[in-house]
Amino acid sequence: MSLAIVYTRAQAGIDAPLVSVEVHLSGGLPGLFIVGLPEAAVKESKDRVRGAIQNSGFEFPARRITINLAPADLPKEGGRFDLPIALGLLAASGQIPRERLDQYEFLGELALGGELRRIRGVLPATLACRDAGRTLLTPGENAGEAMLAGGAKVLGAAHLLEVCQQMVTGNALQPPVMQPRAPSGLALLDRDLSDVRGQHHAKRALEIAAAGGHNLLLIGPPGTGKTMLASRLPGIMPPLNEAEALETAAIASVSAQGLDLQQWGVRPFRAPHHTASGVALVGGGGQPRPGEISLAHHGVLFLDELPEYDRRVLEVLREPLESGRITISRAARQADFPARFQLVAAMNPCPCGYLGDAERHCACGQEQVRRYRARISGPLIDRIDLHIEVPRLAHRILRGGSPEESSATVRARVCAARERQLQRAGKPNSALGTREIEHYCALSDADHKLLEHALERLGLSPRAYHRILKVARTIADLAGSGTIKTPHLTEAISYRALDRTMGGVRYS
Predict the structure, then answer these.
(1) Nearest Cα to 425, choosing from 414, 438, 413?
(2) pTM for this one?
(3) Which of 11, 38, 39, 77 is positioned for an S-S bond with 121, CB 3.0–4.6 A?
(4) What is the structure's pLDDT at 180?
């Protein structure tokens, strides 16, 4: 029989749908035809496969060859199909046995000499292959990434000949050895919170943001430590669990940068430049790729100089901030990417940066400041839970003195508070729904009146009302309190004082 079927995986967002590579040899004029919605890189694989087969000492079949990539309505892209196509050709022509092919799935791009080159998106394919009960055979350079999927059967090969030998003997390749990885905290040692002098109010807000998963806005003159504070947030956040680490790594695996194994288990910290486009932030392209908000999944998205971003670019953040997902739709396909990130933004109080500074005079007029603030819409500000002023510090504080709290100390309190939230509702406070807020964030009658007065005075929206309650619940968790008390509520309200007015200038 001149038909062989080899299994592989395509890439669709962070999913890896099964693809059957069906190779049929028939009579007629010699030629090779690939059907099943192949993209340009897949069509070019026939030349790479021909060179790899011939340079590995095999005979390329001089017959009419039809290769069907099923299902036919799923677009296929990249060089990942080179290896399964080559094995299908060799099996259909009787040069290797086909009995073991259905036990494996194959991924890999071939060099003309037969060497296997690394590809993107191996981790999602490994997870899907594990669930299907097959063994995944990948390029050796991808084997370490594939081994992150616990319980998966993985083999790595460097050359087409090694794969063929495995198909003949069944035991030519040994499973790769998992290399020991440094604890995730070691990757953050160079960004310790103790490096930040003073700014205790901002550090307190940073701790609350980490404990409850809240969004944060830092406002202050240039050089007061806003970026330094933001970069310390991942170091005080709770560690990723296995499922979160796998999801984060899967997104990195399908991205243009690929997965760095040294970042396994480390919460992402993404800081795109303010010239970034909307597509760069949310993802896109002809073959949809994850954007910055997805690459920051379970981590931090830091937007420095927030008003300098194009307003239309900032508006694309509104939906994923609420839903935690982004759907990218194109004419030919649609891709879903998770995007549950913490937004940390920083901005100056005015165009020159010195409004309210005790040492330098602000040269901006009120209208200039109003236009500057108007670059950020009210609905976006509503979605940021904590607004913190980061003032200029006295030089004597910068010289040092008493030691500052380390990230490890703060992280212990954050983890204890987060554990209370998970035991109570199974999720961080920032993810509570309306009914859950009513149940877990109950207030006394006196505190209800206090909050209503604050809402009227500050002109806050119902969304801001719910966010104040969630922040108050987090503050109570950090204090080890089972209920929200007046000090917790007043502190939460104080973090919304800049919601509509800041330095006497109102938002649009």
Answers:
(1) 438
(2) 0.90
(3) 11
(4) 58
